[in-house]
Fold acetate--CoA ligase.
Amino acid sequence: MTVIHKAAKDWKVDPNFVDYEGTRRGFDWSSAPDVCAGMGPGACNIAYAAVDRHQDGPAASRTALRFVSALDTDGAVATRDMSYGELGRLTRQFTNVLRSLAIGRGDRVFTLMGRTPELYISIMGALRNGSVVSPLFSAFGPEPIATRLSIGECDVLITTKAIFRKKLAKIRDQLTSVRHILVVDDTVDNDAARGTLNFWHLMDKADDNAPIEPTTADDPALLHFTSGTTGTPKGALHVHGAVQMHYLTGLYALDLHPEDIYWCTADPGWVTGMSYGVISPLLHGVTSIVDEAEFDATRWYTILQSQGVSVWYTAPTAIRMLIKAGPELAAQFTFPHLRFIASVGEPLNAEAVWWGQRVLGLPIHDNWWQTETGGIMIANTPAFDIKPGSMGRPLPGIDACVVRHRDDGSVSVIDEPDVEGELALKLGWPSMFREYLHQEDRYRKCFTDGLYLTGDLVKRDSDGYFWFVGRADDVIKSAGHLIGPFEVENALTDHPAVAEAAVIGKPDPTVGEVVKAFVTLKDGFSADDELRLDVLGHARKHLGAAVAPKEIEFVDSLPHTRSGKIMRRLLKARELGLPEGDISTVETMAETHAPAVSS
Ligand code: AMP
């Protein structure tokens, strides 16, 4: 096993976390830093710690957010800076906008837009108001949007003109809970025909004196949607107390120092983009780079270099896309300010870790967490050796173990190293999700014996490093996005030609997995390329490109268990040429082994 050793002589600044055993041993959540202390006893609000707290301090005039819009043809970068002071003022104004619309504590405010200033103002303004914020990924199609707005009982939706026209206008009647839709880039005033309000007109009328809602650590703050194998998406509810975790992990796992120029490439429509692209950097008073555009290798290298990014938090798919773009491109840039790179969301292959070392001058530090945990749990951090391919070790305040399931439904902890089992976390950290909205049973099933069961299969080695093995369920990770097969199958079976659909993640060297669908057709339809394109187009239109299948294979029949469930695992095993495992419960083997009609 090759290890990347760390030594103090390589540190550009002293890391925040240098004594692994000692810090963990002496750690106690009740005496961890309280970033909401200034709000008064018992009060806690994420926006207080992220924005209000800085208004009279040294960060007030510092740039909080640097928005990178266009790149000139000569490679110059066009940016707009927003200071902590300005963010504070706009945030308070937005709190008043919500109050003028009678939106208050506990009401749900959804965002559906790109990474523009209005997104950050809306998130912080709504949190200050005590409202619950749910960010949606702007590349979702109308179906995932409608499902989430309905499960989350959205009261206010903030979006753009283009998104409204393309994705919302047709489904507006279905969005029965939505009281107001605010459009951030409208030129007209409130549009009665559309039923929308002009964000900036409301902002202009609002003053910037808005006392913060005195929420507590147990009040709901954020609603993030995640996917399971079956059923509708799960709305994981998080509380304001999670801010303690966002702060500490920014300190320990991302090693943030106030003078950092920090870039988290994740979109705030996903949990990483919210916790570590919005909240954590603001808590630490650093300057965040916000790229308004999508991935482009030249653009990303240009941003890293021209902005002097010092801490970079990105994703394995992005790293692999940079690797694909070739060493010649990377060689045109230098990164003298870069001092720490971390990545999350999907397995980071050892080669990608080494590529960082060779090409960027720093290894990539993998870390692990998920929507439900609300913050980073297991990580490689600057001061400690990396075993490339491993996710690292649990952070202070986090106890992780590997468990095996017993037949009676309980679990036992596996003490021996290098044995595969499910990753479980001992309850007690502050950013743990508090419910799956309206799905009490699903929520309860995540816990046993004081442990949270993550659904991930891992091994722990004798040095305490965790290694990802795979998911215990059928959810798909594509380009870092968690995709529920059921949601995709539902959209496919809405197509008039489709009888049944089963969706799997097919391994892909760049994006981890691509969504592949196996589809049976209704009588009278023929499995040809024209129909395949039509079904693909239908899926993209309804689900959005990030979720829709990339590949469709027409088959005569799908394998089912005797109880009628589609056996996605069997389809996956066949796709990969792997052993099919126990197939004693497959309904009709003759049928299910029928060859594909076309592929
Ligand atoms: P999400 O809730 O969308 O953030 O997805 C969480 C899931 O992503 C985890 O349960 C894992 O399956 C996967 N994941 C996150 N980080 C890693 C990592 N470092 N290595 C492997 N898989 C990861």
Observations:
- The domain at 46-69+80-458 is CATH 3.40.50.12780 (Rossmann fold).
- The two ends are 41 Å apart (CA to CA).
- Confidence is low (pLDDT under 50) at residues 588-599.
- The pocket of adenosine monophosphate is lined by residues 226, 271, 344-348, 366-368, 370-371, 391, 454-456, 468, 471, 477, 482 (CB under 6 Å).
